[in-house]
């Protein structure tokens, strides 16, 4: 553990103007506050914050950040209060300590809820001052270094999983790769001990068998560049176990098949020398196709700049080489901390930390703890690609991202209004994966709105959060509108006209906040018609009075015109009703109304739900009908069927061959129709064709 004078001397060595008195006060305050507390290792608890502060001195951080590291556990784990911290160390340190401090008294029932609330508070504090993140990462790194002292295996795995999912990606996003690699390695050792042991053993065998192979190759690269007049510092290493394990998993190969285990770093004077060194290396050894990346001309979002290439070395080994300047190397080692300038205690994020705003937007849109954790993990996804707007702006996305993800990355409004996309000037479906270097143009319409189906293919947390938020609001709005229709029909069944204050009185009796809550409850079936009648007009719903008349039954069909299928109500897949069919609705508690055709076989089997008489409403248009069509097994018969559907303006949504024999093929089709009249015309046209044996509604 660092002694008091050693810690202060470290800070003064890189910042002679640091507030020495502040650091001394923090050291003494923290030591007294933690007192005789012990860590799981048996060491004094006070050793932990001092080691965290020591880690941050390696990053040359300012005195307030070091003081925050020393004090970061005092509020959570001792009797110290935020007021004491502010009085003794000033408002800036107090604010930073509060940002790092976990929520110690969260009224949450699940581990996910506690983790989500801690993450929410942490991200909000981080958005105000990025130094909160730097302290938190150092805190987590030291905790991972001492993780093996915790006796509870489940707790160790939970901490390791949280580190792998949240903190290592956070370190990567601000360019602190050394922090990221060490956290990943330590978490990997805990989460996959057998895989870690196996890879580590094989790396040791490789070292024993290869002797000084890495140093020999490194010296060769240095001599090659030196002969060409490029002065370079070359270092080599084996990739860390987690990186190797990921490559094995992604490529579905064994350790023996993994060729690029060795990586070399070439540090030169400036940017021009980087490209010169690259040319010399490529002239000497053949490049592995698809393995060159220029992060100098197109830096990563965290500011990382370097040239990456893989070559086939003379020793028949495939090696990875990273070429960068000394300045780029400092950025790569320490990321955001390498260039952070604090002016009057202000640590506001710069353009390289704009992604924090995306995380905050996710917090605003997420409704549950699971959504917060899921979307945040997505937002910090590590494997990224580059795509360009038509104006040449660079957008970074996870691998597998689609034009919808791209649109939301540019702006939420663009994502909401996306109707199509062009990738490299070619019109493509919105679910098309974007490749590295693609130029993407989003086609938009103000009449468009986010589609629930987009959730099946978007991969970014920002896109998923925005779509889910819209769908939730739309579901609520349409449920309220449907509930209003149910309510109006209920009122018409009452034995007398309602007074002006009846609804307000009913809300009080039902203990509901407002009309919208009541309408949504009616639509979702969480309150019965009789209960609503009784609340509006006591005695009208039957109540508990002996001999009272039962509540009057529904008299008029309720129109579902203007509501969206799949939102306020769902069309039953067993019968696929279309406008013109006689329909009924099944209402179950806390579910959307399920709409069936009156002759649906499912209804004849008996169902555990309230029946509601429904109507499409005048002018209702659009539905999906399912057909079973048997065609003759002869050339062109399928073309005849498709031609008839096209001539009748029926769009095929799905087509499946369900049975075939020597004479006939049976197809099931889902087609879009206007109404039941349109459907009957289509069936008549199909039946009239010689190539078609029969056509029936399924």
From TrEMBL:
Keywords: Hydrolase. InterPro entries: ACT-like_dom_sf (IPR045865), ACT_dom (IPR002912), Beta-grasp_dom_sf (IPR012675), HD/PDEase_dom (IPR003607), HD_domain (IPR006674), NT_sf (IPR043519), RelA/Spo_fam (IPR004811), RelA/SpoT_AH_RIS (IPR045600). The keyword Hydrolase applies. It catalyses: GTP + ATP = guanosine 3'-diphosphate 5'-triphosphate + AMP. SUPFAM superfamilies: ACT-like, HD-domain/PDEase-like, Nucleotidyltransferase, TGS-like. GO terms for molecular function: GTP diphosphokinase activity; guanosine-3',5'-bis(diphosphate) 3'-diphosphatase activity. Its EC number is 2.7.6.5. Residues 626-698 form the ACT domain. Residues 45-144 form the HD domain. It comes from the Bacteria. Residues 383-444 form the TGS domain. It is an enzyme of class 2 (transferase). In eubacteria ppGpp (guanosine 3'-diphosphate 5'-diphosphate) is a mediator of the stringent response that coordinates a variety of cellular activities in response to changes in nutritional abundance. This is GTP pyrophosphokinase rsh. It comes from Edaphosphingomonas fennica.
